[in-house]
Structure formats: C-alpha cells, structure tokens
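REQUEST FORM: STRUCTURE PREDICTION
Request ID: SP-0412
Submitted by: Lab K.M.
Chain count: 1
Length (residues): 287
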Amino acid sequence: MKIYILIFLIFLSACNTDLKNPNISFETIPEQAQIGFPINHKVVINDLGELFTLDSVAWEDSSAWLSDSSKVFIKESNIDTLKNSILLNYQITFWDTGSVAIPPLYAFVSFPDSSEASILKTDSSFVYISSVLDTTMTTVMADKPLKEIQFPIERLRLFVFLILSLLIFYTFCLIRTRDKEKISKRKFFNFNPKSKALNDVEKIDLNTDANEFFVKISEVLRKYFQNNFYIISFEMTSSELKEFFKDKDLNYLLDEIDQVKFAKKNPNKSEKEDILQLLKKVIRKLL
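STATUS: Completed
RESULT:
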C-alpha cells in the first residue's frame, strides 16, 4: 500500500509544472520633480518563461501625448531582455507644470505554443511637476545676489597708467637730450663713412702684391660709396661709377685699378703711394 502512495505522489509532482501567468508592473521615480528634470518610468514584464518574443510596445493613446515636444519629451528609452522577464526603462522630461499623467503602456508578447500574442497593460501613472516655485506654490525661491564682474583691464588700470606715464617721460627725456650737432652730422650704422674709409686706407700695406694691393683699394673705395651714398657699388662697373660721379680724379683711380686687374700692370712702391694719396683725395672730395 505504501508503494502505491509513493508512486501516486511522484506522478502528482511530475504533473505539477508550477506555471505562472505573465504579469506586468511599473514604477515611476520620482513622483514629484521640477520642470525640465527627467522622470524614470520603469516597466517590468515578469514570468514569461524562457521562450517568448516581444512583438511591440505602444502607449494607449498611440503616442499622441508625445506629439507636442514643448510639453513632454522622451529623452531616452531602452529595453533589457532577461531570462524570464523584460525591463523597459524610459526617461521622460516634462516642460509643463502641474499634475500630468503617463498613459498606460501595452506590451505584445508571443509564445511558441500560442497563435496569438498576449497583451499586457500597465495603469496610468501620475506625477507632479513644479516650476522654480516651491512645493507649496506660495513662496518664491530667493534669487542669488548679483555679482559684480571685474574685467582684467579694470584691475590693471593703475599698472597700465604707470607704464604709460613712464613711456611719456622717457620720450620727453629723449627729445630734450637730442644733440642738434649730432643730428646734422651724417652718420650711418653708428660710424662716419669718411673716417672709416680713411682709417682703412692707412691699414693698406705698400709691400703687398700689386693685385692684392689694388683689390684692397677697390674694396675700400666701393665700401665707402655704399655706406655714404647708398648705392650698390659692388655690383656697378667702373663705367657706371664714372657716369654716376663724373669726377676726374675718380676716373683716373678707376683706370689704374682696371689696368692692374685686366692689363696686369705692376706699379712700383712710389706709384702705390701716389695711388693711396689719390684715394684719400677722392674720399675727402666726394663726401
């Protein structure tokens, strides 16, 4: 007899599959918020089993309540499919104050052993949206005090004024200390071209080779022309220099230089001394 009772209990437990019907629940957090702050509306569908298909979800009024984005806007939505359940999460932002309702949500779920989809529905959810006023709607939140903005130029005004005053004083001192004689005296590159050329003539050695001697003569002469008259004398020919200055002594000096350069003339020491004296004469005369 006991064996039959045991077999019956085993058969009874095998027939009991402990099936549960699918159910839907929702939660809205928070139920009271300020305008522009998102509301989390979470919908959970439980006890679906391992085999199911979520066909679609839809709001009861076919999303007509979302048509005006200036009043309500779904900022973000996501669906998480778990083993035996589905989680739908919505972030909803309201741009109008007062008591507002989130309409019911329909979920259409299909199962392998059913030819028609099961329809699950939530209830309406109500939230209260307030503006910058407090919850009692009787007092106004105190505004932050106005803060005076100080621009950097205002903080540095005294420093800028001091710098400007120093510049004006320095300019005034420069004007008063100007020497009229120095202004009238021709100077270029902080030296006198005439004195510089004459000093260079004194450095020329009479015992050097004729070619080297006249190369130095030509270099001193052309450098003097460049510093004193601002002409490109090193790129000008002897003919062009003669045409520019029209000086008899300069013409003779240039001819002597060309004869050594092209005719291979070899002057003696006495002739070199005469050339140096002529070079000094040209420099003094053409200043």
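NOTES: The CA atoms of residues 54 and 109 lie 5 Å apart.
Reviewed by: T.R.
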